[in-house]
């Protein structure tokens, strides 16, 4: 059945916008309520609060949909102080447009309801039905460092990404602003020149609009930059050396004749930045044999880049497969580039990584 996904897109963008109000409040607090997860990665009250608000909006509009979200509610059930801190944020965060807030279902009832909402993000994912993927704060390490981060939401239907939304509070609103080397450090969301929402619906192109606090601002179509000369291309990668092999990416850039140093920034802000032509190529090269990429780290960005004229594959040249569970278990790494040069980039990646060219 054909569908325009208009309601899903509107709810998703407003949900991301509301959650970003909360993350921005936490971003400006020197104490971010950070706790360590089982895998030793950090999580803040902002992650939990944003996840609760997004799931509340989905629950109000699409109660039968499944949800794969990054954070779990278990630690909060045994940590009342942390729960209360999050609840304080959640109960005091709302869009300042009454109709938009009402569309998202309004306020969460109480702290217990909030915990239940956070816990609803435990779907196993898979190839059947409607499943939302949420990363409430992607790039938590960047968020803590004062760099880039993103509030990420995507809808998959039968394993295929149909709607993708990224809220990037610390990126310039201006799609034409070139990427500077400092984009990933010492960033702020202050002033009206920062904060952008990227969105896409399958088959309908990709857009950007200013990240606001009420009704949605007007959007503009975005497209990747046509690369005329590979030597002048700019490529993005993680700030965290443990998330992507920076030595190999430097070799790949050299092989392609790229002379500019890589632009390092946290989160799916990388996907948004190349989709609007501020950068050109995003490389994510495995640093371990066992790590499986998480679907919430890629679903929205994958669609936004492809709808902006890009191609996204792993290092073997296969499309990212969101149908196999909570992780991209069938893929290794990520290569995102304008469709016309993706093959050339893939070849360079495979030569440097010593993979047989397909
Ligand atoms: P980025 O900001 O692009 O470096 O990506 C942040 C995401 O990297 C986090 O949300 C984690 O889920 C993910 N991550 C954690 N460990 C690894 C790893 N070893 N390799 C790749 N990604 C990772
Ligand atoms: Mg993440």
Automatic annotation (TrEMBL):
CDD domains: PAP_phosphatase. Gene3D superfamilies: 3.40.190.80, Fructose-1,6-Bisphosphatase, subunit A, domain 1 (3.30.540.10). Keywords: Hydrolase, Magnesium, Metal-binding. It is an enzyme of class 3 (hydrolase). It comes from the Eukaryota. GO terms for biological process: inositol phosphate metabolic process; phosphatidylinositol phosphate biosynthetic process; sulfate assimilation; tRNA decay. InterPro entries: DPNP (IPR006239), Inositol_monoP_metal-BS (IPR020583), Inositol_monoP_superfamily (IPR051090), Inositol_monophosphatase-like (IPR000760), Inositol_monophosphatase_CS (IPR020550). Its cofactor is Mg(2+). It catalyses: 3'-phosphoadenylyl sulfate + H2O = adenosine 5'-phosphosulfate + phosphate; adenosine 2',5'-bisphosphate + H2O = AMP + phosphate; adenosine 3',5'-bisphosphate + H2O = AMP + phosphate. Its EC number is 3.1.3.7. GO terms for molecular function: 3'(2'),5'-bisphosphate nucleotidase activity; metal ion binding. Mg(2+) binds at residues 70, 135, 137-138, 297. PANTHER family: 3'(2'),5'-BISPHOSPHATE NUCLEOTIDASE, PHOSPHATASE. Belongs to the inositol monophosphatase superfamily. Converts adenosine 3'-phosphate 5'-phosphosulfate (PAPS) to adenosine 5'-phosphosulfate (APS) and 3'(2')-phosphoadenosine 5'-phosphate (PAP) to AMP. This is 3'(2'),5'-bisphosphate nucleotidase. It comes from Cercophora scortea.
């Amino acid at each position: 059945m054909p569908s325009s996904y208009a309601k899903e897109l509107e709810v998703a963008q407003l949900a991301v916008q509301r959650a970003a109000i909360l993350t921005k409040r936490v971003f400006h607090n020197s104490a971010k309520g950070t706790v360590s997860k089982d895998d030793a990665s950090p999580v803040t009250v902002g992650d939990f609060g944003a996840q609760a608000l997004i799931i509340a909006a989905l629950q109000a509009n699409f109660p039968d949909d499944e949800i794969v979200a990054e954070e779990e509610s278990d630690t909060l059930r045994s940590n009342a102080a942390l729960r209360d801190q999050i609840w304080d944020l959640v109960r005091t965060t709302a869009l300042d447009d009454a109709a938009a807030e009402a569309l998202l279902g309004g306020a969460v009832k109480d702290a217990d309801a909030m915990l239940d909402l956070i816990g609803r993000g435990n779907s196993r994912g898979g190839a059947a039905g409607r499943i939302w993927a949420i990363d409430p704060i992607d790039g938590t390490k960047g968020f803590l460092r004062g760099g880039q981060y993103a509030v990420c939401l995507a809808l998959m239907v039968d394993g295929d990404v149909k709607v993708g939304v990224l809220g990037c509070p610390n990126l310039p609103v201006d799609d034409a602003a070139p990427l500077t080397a400092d984009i990933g450090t010492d960033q702020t969301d202050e002033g009206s020149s920062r904060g952008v929402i990227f969105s896409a619906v399958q088959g309908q192109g990709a857009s950007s609009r200013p990240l606001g606090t009420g009704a949605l601002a007007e959007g503009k179509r975005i497209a990747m930059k046509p690369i005329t000369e590979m030597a002048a291309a700019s490529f993005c990668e993680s700030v965290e050396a443990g998330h992507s092999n920076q030595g190999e990416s430097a070799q790949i850039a050299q092989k392609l004749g790229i002379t500019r140093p890589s632009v390092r920034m946290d989160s799916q802000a990388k996907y948004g930045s190349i989709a609007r032509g501020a950068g050109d190529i995003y490389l994510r090269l495995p640093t371990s044999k066992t790590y499986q990429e998480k679907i919430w780290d890629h679903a929205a960005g994958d669609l936004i880049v492809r709808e902006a004229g890009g191609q996204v594959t792993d290092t073997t040249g296969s499309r990212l497969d969101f149908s196999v569970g909570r992780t991209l278990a069938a893929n290794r790494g990520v290569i995102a580039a304008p469709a016309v040069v993706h093959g050339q980039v893939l070849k360079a990646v495979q030569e440097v990584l010593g993979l047989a060219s397909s």
